[in-house]
From TrEMBL:
This is RelA/SpoT domain-containing protein. SMART domains: TPR. InterPro entries: NT_sf, TPR-like_helical_dom_sf, TPR_rpt. It comes from Noctiluca scintillans.
């Protein structure tokens, strides 16, 4: 049985009772006439454009009411795809095309799907005219065939009579589709669109075993693409982009570096690469610390320039994908601003990023927690310590995502260390260290970073013996990293070298104080 079939069988009894029923009216649902005549694509596009702001507002209302995992309002369906569908499926009848305007809602239970249907039926401005349910009892044969399931609603807006589509996806099936289905090549793009844009956003919600499975599959697909189309083909480029992203999630530094360097070299040869793929490569180069800080920042600035050149001047004309991509670029710019001690600039970027994702995600989404942590850090560095600590405590107290909570804990340790409050600082640093050892192992560089901080606290509190052990272990961890990458110049190596030197200095101070 396929993953979809198992997913269907694994639905809890409560969810099975909440399965939305299919409703197919005998008479086909049709788009309204335009001046008494059957519309063409231009007519349907105009109808869809007229209601798009209202549909976007409805999507936002549904997302908040349902505490949806993800809501996305798609751009109006393109003419080429619309023409193909009308010609192939509808015999040239444009009135039967019902998804020119559409949005997607991902929820974690069938009950929420029923709640969404009830919400729409209770509204005065729309009518639900058709329900296409892949979960209803009439479709239970799909449990053995393993077909993908969702619920599609055709909804007529009373403003102009135009019918739009609401696609409701169950989170478990959504993840199966993205991680195990035929669209594995687009899996990492899907992470971007759902605002899971850095490794720590997904670790803690996806098992290590699943990530390793995805990494192995991505490697295999990458090799297949190279054999079939050549190492510098568009197909190979696409597969390498996804391999690099999954390797980053899996903390496989060697694969990240090898693949990212290859992609940057490919930019000089792939003249037919799409603008979006070029931007993805530039963002990988800017964010994976494979290059020095100046080059990384330059890659990010190039991505920003290309993105701006491809967008309409009016931001209200940007679709959700464009808005998220700009937020991703801003987040990387914020990171580089912090490195350059331009904390005010970093804060400005993070506030914009937070505002963007706030309109798309629930307040407790890992991405929201991560950006909120960075805002807190910037507040502290700008001298607003109490305000910054309050934000960090809010994340630490409310976040259920293990990695994001650990990050907030580390930054709280740093905040209390700045106040020489060694007891509180040690408490939060130790929590972070324990979490990183459990997740990544005691020799991982991230564990070394936490151990270095623990050592500073022990030294500050006067426990020289413990501090000496902490610094020595941290030196051993960072020394192994530097030895393995002795011929490499990158932000990552520079950072580990600085940490090695800090641990060495701490150890020398311990020896002088002994």
């Amino acid at each position: 049985m396929s993953a979809y079939g198992r997913g269907f069988q694994d639905l809890c009894p409560a969810d099975r009772y909440c399965v939305p029923s299919a409703n197919f009216p005998e008479q086909s649902q049709l788009q309204p006439l335009v001046d008494g005549e059957c519309p063409d694509y231009a007519g349907l596009k105009e109808q869809g454009r007229d209601i798009l702001p209202k549909v976007s507002e409805l999507a936002e209302v549904m997302g908040h009411a349902l505490r949806a995992n993800f809501v996305s309002v798609g751009p109006l369906k393109a003419e080429a795809r619309s023409t193909e569908k009308v010609s192939k499926d509808y015999g040239g009848d444009w009135r039967r095309l019902l998804d020119v305007c559409r949005f997607t809602v991902v929820v974690d239970s069938m009950r929420k799907m029923q709640d969404a249907l009830a919400l729409l039926k209770d509204r005065d401005d729309v009518d639900v005219v058709r329900v296409k349910s892949g979960f209803c009892v009439e479709c239970k044969h799909m449990a053995t065939t393993g077909g993908y399931r969702d619920v599609k609603l055709n909804v007529r807006h009373k403003f102009n009579g135009h019918i739009f589509e609401v696609q409701m996806q169950l989170l478990s099936f959504y993840l199966i589709k993205r991680e195990l289905g035929h669209a594995l090549y687009t899996w990492s793009r899907t992470l971007d669109l759902s605002c899971i844009v850095v490794p720590s956003d997904i670790m803690g919600t996806t098992s290590k075993e699943r990530v390793q499975d995805m990494l192995r599959i991505a490697w295999r697909r990458c090799e297949e693409a190279r054999r079939e189309s050549g190492d510098r083909s568009l197909k190979a480029m696409t597969s390498k982009i996804h391999l690099a992203k999954i390797a980053n999630i899996a903390s496989d530094r060697q694969t990240v570096k090898q693949t990212t360097l290859s992609l940057v070299e490919d930019l000089n040869f792939l003249k037919s690469a799409s603008n979006s793929d070029i931007i993805e490569i530039l963002l990988l180069a800017a964010s994976t610390q494979c290059f020095d800080s100046a080059m990384s920042l330059n890659f990010c600035e190039q991505a920003m320039e290309k993105m701006k050149a491809s967008l309409p001047e009016a931001e209200e004309e940007w679709d959700t994908t464009d808005v998220i991509m700009m937020a991703r670029i801003r987040e990387i710019l914020a990171f580089h601003a912090k490195l350059s001690a331009k904390t005010s600039d970093a804060l400005d970027h993070y506030l914009v990023v937070y505002d963007v994702f706030q309109g798309l995600l629930s307040i407790d989404h890992p991405k929201m927690m991560g950006v909120k942590t960075e805002i807190g850090v910037c507040r502290i560095d700008l001298g607003h310590r109490e305000e910054g600590k309050q934000l960090l405590h809010e994340v630490f107290d409310t976040c259920s995502h293990k990695v994001k909570k650990s990050k907030a804990s580390f930054e709280l340790g740093r905040a209390y260390e700045l106040e020489n409050n060694w007891v509180q600082a040690l408490k939060f640093y130790t929590l972070t260290f324990d979490n990183r050892v459990q997740d990544l192992g005691k020799t991982h560089p991230a564990a070394g970073t936490a151990l270095l901080a623990v050592g500073r606290c022990h030294l500050g509190a006067g426990d020289v013996e413990k501090a000496r052990d902490d610094f020595q272990q941290a030196m051993d961890i960072f020394g192994q990293v530097l030895q393995a990458n002795s011929n490499s110049v990158s932000m990552y190596n520079d950072n580990k070298r600085n940490q090695f030197e800090a641990a060495e200095l701490g150890l020398q101070q311990c020896l002088s104080d002994a």
